[in-house]
Amino acid sequence: MNEKARGQGLLSVEQALEALLTRAERIVDREEVALDEALGRVLAHGLASPQNVPPHDNSAMDGYAVRCADLAGGALRVGQRIPAGSQGVPLEPGTCARIFTGAPIPPGADAVVMQEHCRVAGDQVTVEQPASPGQHVRRAGEDITAGAEILAAGTRLRPQELGLAASVGLARLPVVRRPRVALFSTGDELVAPGEALGPGQIYNSNRYTLAGLLRNLGCEVLDLGAVEDTLEATREVLRRAAGACDLILTSGGVSVGEEDHVKAAVESLGALELWRIAVKPGKPLAFGSVDGTPFMGLPGNPVSSFATFCLFTRPFLLRRLGVQAVMPRVIPAESGFDWTRPGDRREYLRARLEPDAAGRTVVTLYPNQGSGVLTSTSWAEGFVIAPEGQVIRRGDPVSYIPFAELLS
Ligand SMILES: Nc1nc2c(c(=O)[nH]1)N[C@H]1C(S)=C(S)[C@@H](COP(=O)(O)OP(=O)(O)OC[C@H]3O[C@@H](n4cnc5c(N)ncnc54)[C@H](O)[C@@H]3O)O[C@H]1N2
Ligand code: MOO
C-alpha cells in the first residue's frame, strides 16, 4: 500500500483480511448427509478408505487373460469366460480366459492381451504380439490402499470428491453444518423487482446478487427482506437475526452519510468497526457483532457489494466452515489494455480473457468501471488487479482472478 493511502488511514486488503480471518470462528456443529446431498459441503473430518480400490486385480482391456510363460507354446485354448462382476477359476496350463474390462484376473494369469492382438479360431487363440507380465492388469489398491486418507478435513466436496467417496463404498459423509446467513437491505430508495418505481427509487439488486453468492457457497440464506429505515425497526431485525444465524450481512449505509440506521443499531446492540480499505470498488466496510453474532456491512454500490463479498465475505465464511485455502487463485496473464491513471487504492477491474488482433489471449476491460455499473460484472469473467500507484501497459504481466474461483 502506498504512503498516501496509509496517510488517509486506509487498511490494506491484506490487513482487512487478516483481521476478518482471525475472527472467523469455526462452526462446530456437524451432521451426516447422504452422498447425494453432499455436493458443495465441507468435510468435518478426514476420511480413510475402508478398502483397496480397485478391490481386486482386474483387466484394463477386453481380450484374453494369459500366463506369459505359456505363450511360447503356440495357440491357447479358451478355458473360461470372465465378464465384469464375476469371478474366474485358476488358469490351467496351456489355456487362457476370455476376459472383459474390469473383470477380475483369474489366479495364475499374469497379463491381458487385447483382443485386437489375437487371432481366434474356434476355441483356440493365437497371440500375435509379445506380452509381458503385468500388461493391462490394474492392480488391487493401485488407486487407493485400505486405510489411506482419501480426503482431509476442511475439503469442499466437488463432484470428483463425491465419486471418490463412493469408490470406497462410503454412503454418508460427515459435513459441517451449513452456515446460516441473515441478509437484509435498508434504504428508502429500494423497491423489490415486480413493483412500480416511485420518484427517486431504484430496484433492490444487491439482495439477489448477495443471496446468489451465499447460496453458491452452500449457505442457508435467512432473507429478512427490506427493513423499514428506523432505528427501532433495524434494532429489532438485528436482534431477531442474531439469535438465528452465523453472520448478519447487509449492504449499504456504511459510508459517511447519516441517512441509514444500520450503523447506529449495530453499535447499540454490540460493537462496530468502520473500516476504510485501500480497495476499489469497496472502500467502506463495516465489521462488528450483535449479541455475539458477527455482522458484516458491505457498501451499497452494486459492484462494490459484489466485489467485497468476493474479497472478504467469502473467505470469512469459508474459514468459519474450516476451509484452509480460502483465497482465490490468481492467474498470471497479459494485459490487453493501458491503465494510465492509477489511484491510491488497489483496483479490481471487471475483465475477461479474449484474443487480441494477433490471436494472443490477453485481458480486456469492460469500458465502464463505475461501481454502480452492474453490467460490468455480467460481461466480465474475472477481476484483473490494478495495483495502487502502478501504470499498466498493453503486454505487461497482470494478475487475473477468474470468477470461477469466486462463484462456487
Ligand atoms: N462523502 C463520501 N461519500 C462516499 C464515499 C466517501 O468516502 N465519502 N464513499 C463512496 C463509496 S467508495 C461507496 S462504495 C459508497 C458506499 O456507500 P454506502 O455503503 O453508504 O451505500 P449507500 O449510500 O446506502 O448506497 C450507495 C449506492 O448504492 C445503491 N444501493 C444501496 N443498496 C442497494 C441495493 N440493495 N440494491 C441496489 N443498489 C443499492 C444506493 O442507491 C446508492 O446509489 O459511498 C460513496 N460515497
Ligand atoms: O469503493 Mo466504492 O466501493 O469505490 O464504490
TrEMBL record:
Organism whose genome encodes this protein: Thioalbus denitrificans
Record carries keyword Transferase: yes
Matching NCBIfam families: Glp_gephyrin (NF045515), molyb_syn (TIGR00177)
Protein name per its UniProtKB record: Molybdopterin molybdenumtransferase
SMART domains: MoCF_biosynth (SM00852)
Domain MoaB/Mog: 182-319
The EC number(s) this enzyme carries: 2.10.1.1
The protein's required cofactors: Mg(2+)
